[in-house]
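Re-run with default settings, no changes from the original entry. Doing this only to confirm the output is reproducible before filing.
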Amino acid sequence: MTKKLFLMRHGETLFNQLKKVQGACDSPLTEKGIQQAHLAREYFQERNIQFDHLYASTQERACDTLEIVTGSKNYQRLKELKEMGFGSFEGEQQFLQPHGPEYFDSFYLQFGGESMSGVQKRITAALHQIMAKDDHQNVLAVSHNGACISFLQTIWQGDGNELVRAFPNCAIFILNYADEKFQLEDIIDPATKQSIL
């Protein structure tokens, strides 16, 4: 039987608004971010999508988003769902980052940050462990843009460069899980309730 994972990016934060690098460091949701989470909640409610298990990154922005979306504080926080750590590059202006996907795997190691492949291994293993559980049929997991992209690269069928972009805050990645494999069904922007796949 096919299971469903709804993987989400958190709502807009202060650092997103200020265009600052935000990985392991945290900043609060903005008013817009709170509104985005409410729109995601509406999306799920309008489609009568209910979750049997809830997970979030340990970072405040992900936890706050999940609590708004579900109205619940009964969820599991997992470090494996955290955003990529950028080391001493945290909090810098985004325009200082190099451009191009080739930089992401190792560039931040020199600053004490993580590699993209390291992030990919930890989030992919965590999501497989979550969905392999017998009673997990319809799961919500709130994570981060870079972490979601690194996971999606493991199952993406098209040009990998199409994935390296900033997905909208609160983007919903709808994934089917069967026979220990994930398949991307759709990507929804809850602000428009339209597919952006």
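The mean pLDDT is 94. The chain is about 30% helix and 20% strand.
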